[in-house]
Each structure stands twice: as structure tokens, then as C-alpha cells.
Amino acid sequence: MSSYQQRWLALVAVSGFLAVALGAFAAHGLKPYLDERAQEWFKLATTYQMWHTLALLGLAATWIEKNKGFRLAAWGWLIGVLLFAGSLYLMAVTGNTRLAFITPIGGLALLLGWLSLFVGVVRSRVS
After folding, report:
1. For residue range 91-103, what is the model confidence (pLDDT) as tens digits?
2. Is the pLDDT of residue 37 over 80?
3. Which of 77, 57, 69, 75 is nearest to 122 (CA)?
4. Distance CA 121, CA 127 (A)
5. DSSP conformation class of 2
6. CB 3.0–4.6 Å: which of 4, 47, 102, 111 could bond 87 by disulfide?
């Protein structure tokens, strides 16, 4: 396993841990303090974070370092989780909806990650 792959797998481990921990914290510790809308934001954030963490795990476990599409997919998902889920977490906890403009930027990064994975797969078949 390369050191590059190890770093990505470490990031995956941290993201998975945080998704579970934040979900549990919201369900048990924050529930009395969050209104229904904030609880939905938190739930959506943890759901998207976990799904993309699992996608990153699969990608990192089968890593092909020279495939630019795969590298872009990994970065897209990481940035997307940080922006999409991160903005939802912050809005839920702070009630500051001015952060809402960040959420679709994160969603776009997640979509670009999936598109990059597709391009990476197609190009690897052609080569």
C-alpha cells in the first residue's frame, strides 16, 4: 500500500468516525436543543457524509494512483462532504441560515466527484 493510499484511508477513517459520532451526538445530546428543521439538516448531513465516506473507502481500497479521474473523484467527494455536510451541521447548530449558499456548492463538488469517477473508469478501459 502506498503512502498516498494510506493518507486517503486515514481520511476515510476519520470521516466515518465523525459521521457516526455526530449522528449519535445529534440524536442523543442535541435533540432537545434542535428544532425539527435543524434535526433534518443534521440527519441529511450525516447521511451524505456516510455514503460518500463509503464511496471513498471503496475508491481508496482499490486505488489506481495514476488515474486522474479517480483522484479527482476522491477530492470532489472530500471537498463536497466538507462543504455540503459541514454547512448543514453549522446551520443546524447555530441556526445561521446565511451559510445555506455553501450547501449547493458542496453538492456540486459531490456530483463532480461522481462524474470524475465515471470519466476515470471510461478512460481506464480505453487505455
Report:
1. 999 999 999 999 9
2. yes
3. 69
4. 10
5. -
6. 102
Inter-axis angle of helices 102-126 and 68-80, to 10 degrees? 160
Q: Which residue has the cell 445529534?
A: 26
Say yes or no to pLDDT of 17 above 90: yes
Distance CA 22, CA 25 (A): 5
Q: Distances from the Cα of 86 to the Cαs of 62, 83, 126, in angstroms?
A: 27, 5, 37
Amino acid, single-letter form, for residue 115 = L
Region for 77 from its dihedrals, namely left if φ exceeds 0, alpha if ψ lies in -120 to 50, beta otherwise: alpha
Cα–Cα dist 119/124, whole Å: 8
What CA–CA distance (Å, rounded) separates 67 from 79?
A: 19
Angle formed at CA 71 by CA 66 and CA 75, multiple of 5 degrees:
165
Amino acid occupying residue 98: R
Cα 106 from Cα 46, distance rounded (Å): 14
Q: Which three cell numbers stand for residue 27?
A: 440524536
**C-alpha distances out from residue 43 to 24, 40, 74, 119, Å:** 10, 5, 23, 31
